[in-house]
Structures are given as C-alpha cells and as structure tokens.
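[job 0412] stage=fold_complex status=start
inputs:
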Amino acid sequence: MTKRILAVGSGGGHWQQLMLMRPAFEGCETLYLTTLSGLPEQFGASPAAIIPDCNRNEKRQILRTTWAVFGHLRRFRPDVVISTGALPGVLALGLARLAGARTIWVDSVANAEEMSMSGKLARRVAHLWMSQWEHVAAESGAEYAGAVL
Amino acid sequence: MIFATVGTQLPFARLIDALDALVLELGETIIAQTGPKDGRWPHLDRRETLTPVEFEQIFTSARVVVAHAGIGTILSAKRWRKPLVILPRRHALGEHRNDHQLATARQVEKLAGIHVAWQVDDLGPLLRTPDLTAASEAQSPTHAALIDRLQRFIVGQGSDA
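[job 0412] stage=fold_complex status=done
writing structure:
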C-alpha cells in the first residue's frame, strides 16, 4: 500500500533542507506544508499547502497554526509525518502522533552546537528523533544517520 | 564577478579586508554583502543588505562565491551549482561565539565545489584559479545515508519505538 507522508518545513532553511530529503519520499503520496506562499511552486513541490507560522511567544498564533495543521491531518490522514522545523513542525508531529501516525524529526543542520529549541520540544513526540551532527546526536541522545550537506 | 557574503548577523572584517586588498590584483568586480558597516573598503561594490531576489540574482551570476562557513550559503551553492570558497569564522578572533564553523568546514571540505580557505592567505590562490569546480546537488555519502535511513523508517523497517 502506498504510504502517505506529510512533510512540514517552515520557510527558509528548514524548507530548503526538507526539499533535499525528497528522494526519501519516492513512491509515497506526499503532501507538503510550509509557512511561506510561493515556496512550493519555487521548488516544484506539489501538492502543497500554506499554514500560518508561529513561535513560542504568540499563543494565539500557535492556536491558529494548530487548527490549520489539524485540518490537513484530518483530510490527508498521513501514515508518516516528517519535519525539519520549526515550531509548526513540532505541532504537526504532536497532533499526528495522537492520531496514530509515525513521526520523524530531523533537526536543522544549522544547529551544529546543540539541538534547536523546537528540536528539544519535538523529542517527546518524534518516534525517530535525529540530529544532522554526530556530536550533537551523541550529547542529546538523538540518532545520527547523515546530513543534507 | 565575485560575490562575497558573510550572512546578516555578524560582521566578518577579516574576510572583507582580504577581498578589498585582492580586487586590484584580480582585476575583477567583487560585490560584497557586508551587513551594516561604514565604507572602509574602497575597492568593493558593497551592499549592506540584499533582498532574496537580489541575492539570488547576484549569486547565480557570479563566477565564484566567497563566504563564511554558513550552512545557508553552502546549500545555496549546491542548489545554484556555484564554486564556493569558504573562510570559517574563528572563535579566538572574536568572529563567532564558538568554533562550529570550523566543524562545518571540515564536514564539507570533501564535497566537490566547496573550497575551504583555512586562512586568509589561501583566498588569493583559490580566487586566481581559472576553472574552480562548481558545487552540485549530487548527493554526498552522508546525504545518501540520511535518505536511506528515512526510507527505511518510512517503509517500516526502522528500529523506531
């Protein structure tokens, strides 16, 4: 059966790295979510949808993002949800896990010193929790398998 | 044309000074995105900030890009297939809060098209090289390993909880 993947990355570096992981989704039915309109078209990622961005300091905005992500999860019913960050990705992983999906967090390769803030939050909701740096993985207890570099 | 970019967060005078000193000898225009700093680099075409569109346009039309060892720049060089010369920022010189750019430089040194200047003196010879190899989007072994791990998890062979 074809796996359904929901791939979530905020605009900028997170999205760019998610795009570099696309070969892993080959043969799957993938829906992309990002926070910046125009990005999916720029990278030829389809189908895709835009969700509102949010950060830890804006509670109201977090609710908006959560609601949007919830809608996509309900309609798309993914088997696997993957995110490179940031907070919208953590929310997606959390909700998806509650719904019974398997979840992947790949922390941004820009975090060469320690896990990102959202990566630390994602630990509790990611089945597969990875850093793209060997020493960061070793220190945090994450898995290291490689990097998009 | 050579494009120099040091990111938007921290100044990197060691790199920009060195490039300013190289312009006349190279006989090539250097556009430098230096962040906010007064103009003490008379030979550079200096830009404080660039919009994403301007950045892409200058990046893609450059012969070679020179930068700090920032992840964004490395990914851009791969995406737009440009030769990239990187000079890692040093903590000891007050250029960053730690030495993670050295770690990044060591990690990407093996990649085609990414040329590491370990010190300022390496910049001249690298920039004088006529056909510097361009970076490519081709997967490195570590990139392939990451994809492979993700694939195994997705099809359900991973050792997830």
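[job 0412] summary: Helices of chain A lie at 13-20, 39-43, 59-76, 87-98, 117-122, 134-140.
[job 0412] exit 0
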